[in-house]
Amino acid sequence: MLIQQQRNVQMPPHKLFGEDAATLRGKPDKIFFVASHDSDEVTVQPMDPDEIARRMVFSLQEERMDFLSYYWKFRFAFPDRANALIDRAEQVQLERLTRAFAGKEAYSVYHPYPVNIPSLYDAMNPLL
Fold first, then answer.
1. Domain of 75?
2. What is the value of pTM for the model shown?
3. I need a labelling partner for 28 at 20 to 30 A (CA). Which of 6, 49, 61, 74 fits?
4. pLDDT for 74-111, tens place per residue?
5. How many structural domains comprise the chain?
6. What is the per-residue pLDDT for 81?
7. Which of 47, 62, 127 is nearest to 93 (CA)?
8. Which residue in 67, 65, 68, 54 sits closest to 98, CA to CA?
């Protein structure tokens, strides 16, 4: 039996794709809050960036539900072993999202489900 050992070779992204393709920073100028609705139309309206931040916090909480279930079970077994970052995640995320979105141009984009991508593009393109 022949066993081959793989080498862990790391290649920086800029070596593969060029210096410009490996930029790891960005600065959003506009924020789009995208959700579905019961209408057949795609609608785009200005939206308060603070409202987007508040709503995103709830979306992020939903994404963490499985993880939190395990954390709460751990806390049940070890009630004195709290994790301040996990316990404050909602507050930290709200503060950071609010700060990141402050002063940004923001829009709500509502679309039918399933969405027609060309229609979504047509509605958003004038704002880009």
1. 31-127
2. 0.74
3. 61
4. 999 999 999 999 999 999 999 999 999 999 999 999 99
5. 1
6. 97
7. 62
8. 54
